[in-house]
Amino acid sequence: MLTFLALTSVALLGIVPEQSQAIAIYTGWERHALVGSDIRLSCSFFSWRWTSEDVTFSWTYRPDGSRDSISIFHYTGGAAYVDNKGPFRDRLEFVGNPGRRDGSILLKNLELNDNGTFTCDAKNPPDIVGRPSSVRLLVFEKVPIQAGVITGAIIGVVLGLLVLIVVIYYLMRFLVARRVFSLSVSKHGKKKKEGSQQRQGPVPPADPSKIKV
Amino acid sequence: MRLILLGVLILHVIILILLIVSTAASAWSVADNSAKDLWYKCSTNNGGYRCQPSSNEDWIQAVQALMILSVLFCFFSLIAFLYQLFRLVKGGRFFFTAIFQILASVFVMCGAIIYTVMRPDDGTHTNFGYAYVLAWVAFPLCLISGLIYIVLRKKE
Fold first, then answer.
1. How far apart are CA A140 and CA A149, in angstroms?
2. Which N-terminal residues, if any, form the signal peptide (chain A) (predicted)?
3. Nearest 5°: phi and psi at A107?
4. In angstroms, rounded to a whole number, what is the distance separating the alpha carbons of residues B74 and B104?
5. pLDDT class of A204 with cuts at 50, 70, 90
């Protein structure tokens, strides 16, 4: 009896840790925005369980060059608590849908001081073991042109025009040839009816400049 | 006739090589120990040789695009020349080759002009590098080669 109990408890201890599995949190990697604009930082998670009612989302912010992070948002028990004392007071809004595992926040009226790392941590009890995910926010005064965009655009347009011109050229030649061909067929038919002895063939182009490639 | 064709072909290949070197080498501006544009900014400090990507301004991207287009068009004209050499009717002119070659020369000219005008005057990097000189050398050669193709006629 005792050994049976011991074996069962060992087996249960072996099974129980598997009941709380890891949760995977997804945010973006890096976000770029202009000064004065709004940006939506998205956060969602993957968990094997149904979304529980005790699901929590929390966002923390660490400015560039600082080592401390402060908490700016927390959602728990069905209510969202936004920052009302920190750098984002009156600029933060919760736009997520916890029922759909979306814990996104909206930052309004960005300033240059808002550069930093935003970390989202989500918990779906009993799945609480997970690594918080971070997204870096870069605020620009003027959005820099990415390398190669203009280069690619110019090359693409010129090559596209080249292909278009070649296609149009061959199309025109083809259409003209067709009209010439149909004309010679009708002439050929008429002449045959009249019983002419002249040899009719396709119109030979006498001008060498007409023959291209 | 064969000698002329060979000479024209060699000139074309030389122009293509000049254009490729000018486009690929990042040495349009040089300073004491560094060279930059079109693709990288490389400098030799006492610590070693370091390179970083050059600035993404719109005019540099335009020069990059024009140089790449000139290399492509010169290459297309070489292919067109070889093709027309064997397929052109007697007495015909190498029009396609000439058009592509002249377009390539126009692109090199535009790229070199844009670079000359828009280069920032900040004290360092005041000298023009060898890649810039090669671009200006390739432009008249390319134009002359294009004009030769207009004048050239296929005989016998």
1. 18
2. 1-22
3. -100, 125
4. 6
5. very low
Q: If you average pLDDT over every residue of chain A, what do you get? A: 80
For residues A10 and A7, give the distance between their C-alpha atoms in angstroms, rounded to a whole number.
5
| Coil vs helix vs strand at B42 | strand
Q: What are the DSSP calls for A67-132, one per residue?
A: ---EEEEEEETTEEEE-SSSTTTTTEEE--BGGGTB--EEE-S--GGG-EEEEEEEEBTTB-EE--
> Burial level of A166, CB count in 10 A (0-12/13-18/19+)?
exposed
The tokens for A25 are 């949190």
Report d(CA B11, CA B141) in Å as an integer.
8
B79 SS3 class: helix
Residue type at A48? Answer: W
* Contact between B57 and A145 using a beta-carbon 8 Å cutoff: yes
3-state secondary structure of B39: coil
Closest CB from B57, B69, B89 relative to A158: B69
User: By the CB < 8 Å criterion, does B72 face chain A?
Assistant: yes
Mean pLDDT on B48-75: 91
A66 Cα to chain B: minimum distance (Å)? 27
Residue B98's identity, in one-letter code, is A
Complex ipTM, two decimals?
0.84
**How far apart are alpha carbons A24 and A48 in whole angstroms?**
10
Q: Is B66 on the interface with A (CB under 8 A)?
A: yes
Q: B71-118, pLDDT tens digit by residue?
A: 999 999 999 999 988 887 887 788 889 999 999 999 999 999 999 999
Show the tokens assigned to A14: 């072996």
CB distance B56–A211 less than 8 Å? no
Number of cross-chain residue pairs from A and B with Cβ atoms under 8 Å apart? 50
Q: How far apart are CA B73 and CA B149, in angstroms?
A: 15
Does B106 lie at the interface with A, CB-CB under 8 angstroms? no
Candidate from B53, B61, B91 with C-beta closest to A150: B61
Pairwise CB contact (< 8 Å): B61 & A149: yes
Query: Which chain A residues are within 8 Å of B69, Cβ to Cβ?
Result: 154-155, 158-159
